[in-house]
Amino acid sequence: MVILSMALLIGLLLFLQRIVYRKFWDVGLNMRLSFSSREAYEGERLELHEELTNAKPLPLPWINAKFQLSRNLIFAGADNFKVSDYYYQNDLFSVGMYQKVTRRLPFICGRRGYYSIRSMDLGSSSILISDKLIKHVECNTDLTVLPRPAPFALLEPAFRQLQGDIEIRRFINLDPFSFRGLREYDPRDDFRLINFTATAKTGDLIVNVHSATSAQELVILLNVEPYSEYHREHVIEEGIRIAASAAEHFGAMGLSVSLVTNGRDVSTGAEQKVPPGSGRIHVHKILESLARIDLPKGQSAMWKLLDGIRDAEPTYFLISSNDDQHIYETFQKMLENGLRIRWVAPIPLTASMRVQEDEFITRWDVRTIDTTTYFYPNDNN
């Protein structure tokens, strides 16, 4: 009789705990995910913070947290990850009543991009694991990984050519509102520069000296079309890094820099375009736009975009690994129309280049190693 009573009591307790867990297991239960920084460069190390809170007088012997992340975020010692296009994180927690558990998962930003965690599933059960309990949790966690600029030392020859074009343009476009001083007249001077008051005083022809206008513009034209049907994404990624390097270098010179690309935004699907501007904040906006390019969304034909350019005032910097006939002919047409434009073609030495290098076209040797696991060494360039 005693044994039967004890059995009935145990059965009742088990039944009651099952009811209690079913009804109250997710009350006061929450998990928060956050990155240690919302922004970083390729190759930088960050942490993903997991914070599980159980704000009730009911312990949870185990909680299973599941969510997915891009494989471009490389986690160290990720034994709980299954890898495909994403990392599938599967973490196990045990949390007591009114307890908070925090974990930090270190990782490397393997490739530029915009990464987000929008939801996760929390799973648990009653003490005897007789019920499977699931709670869907909404998240609002994101990370922008900016493209790491390509090494300046390797790009210096191409940048020097661009800088020469810009300096010539500055010489041509003098700022009439920036007066620097006076000097004697030279036969090559524009007649409009003569200062008649100073000429009358000295008896010699004197001209005004003006500074070059600071409103010079560099337009970065980034083409993310593949250079062949057998392309690898790291070739396109190298072009994006060159664009980042150009924006930082010429932005630091005080130039007005803009971005035009057929790369599409990861969220809106619209082609990225940043209007002219200067300063660190503007350059950062260009880097953010480059980070948000989503290659799988496809792209329009770059030659059509180039064909629509008519403004001869800016200096243009074309970055395109695709060197097909349409792009080459449009590029030559722009030169013939008097536009100042230079072309850097990121193409591996192992691949054939269909156009000839000359004073306007430069080949950039793309390293063949996959950039999800390769980073440039830290330097100050």
Describe this entry's structure for a reader.
The protein is α/β, with parallel strands linked by helices and 381 residues long. It folds into three domains: 27-146, Immunoglobulin-like, CATH 2.60.40; 152-170 and 214-364, Rossmann fold, CATH 3.40.50.410; 174-212, no CATH class. Helix content is 27%, strand content 37%. The protein is built from seven helices and 18 strands. The chain has helices spanning 2-24, 152-172, 196-202, 233-252, 280-291, 302-307, 325-336, and strands spanning 29-35, 39-41, 45-54, 60-70, 73-75, 81-83, 86-95, 99-109, 113-124, 133-146, 174-184, 206-212, 217-223, 256-264, 271-277, 315-320, 340-346, 361-364. The strands form four sheets. It has a six-stranded mixed sheet with strand order 2-10-9-4-7-6. The chain has a six-stranded mixed sheet with strand order 15-14-13-16-17-18, with helices on both faces. The radius of gyration is 31 Å and the shape is elongated. Residues 170-175, 211-215 and 368-381 have low confidence and may be disordered.
Features of the shown structure:
single chain, 381 residues, alpha/beta, Rossmann fold, 3 domains, six-stranded mixed sheet, 7 helices, 27% helix
